[in-house]
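Quick start: read one record
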Amino acid sequence: MADELQAVWVFHGASAPFSSGVFTSKQAADQWITRHQLSGMLTKYPLDTGVYDWAIAEGLFQPRQDYQTGAKFVGRFTSASQEHYHYEAGIDLEGKTDDPAAGRPDVCDQ
């Protein structure tokens, strides 16, 4: 990362309604997740933009239907193109696969 902070890492525990940690480095997040033996997902989020706008700017998503520009869709939008890692009991499961996004949809609005 450049001198200026451009992204943060957000941990969302399995089945949790809200995120439980925000970190400036993956290393700090990994240490916290491991120490508490947490299960869930760690995702890198760009700062000062929403994921929806980021995905469009990066050429990862293009709205094709009217509803895909509405508040409900934009507010729930996520992308598997964001760097992310899955954990079980504090163990990073991504080290077990070559392609962390394999088998996952590119975009999720659920």
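Residues 35 and 90 are 7 Å apart (CA to CA).
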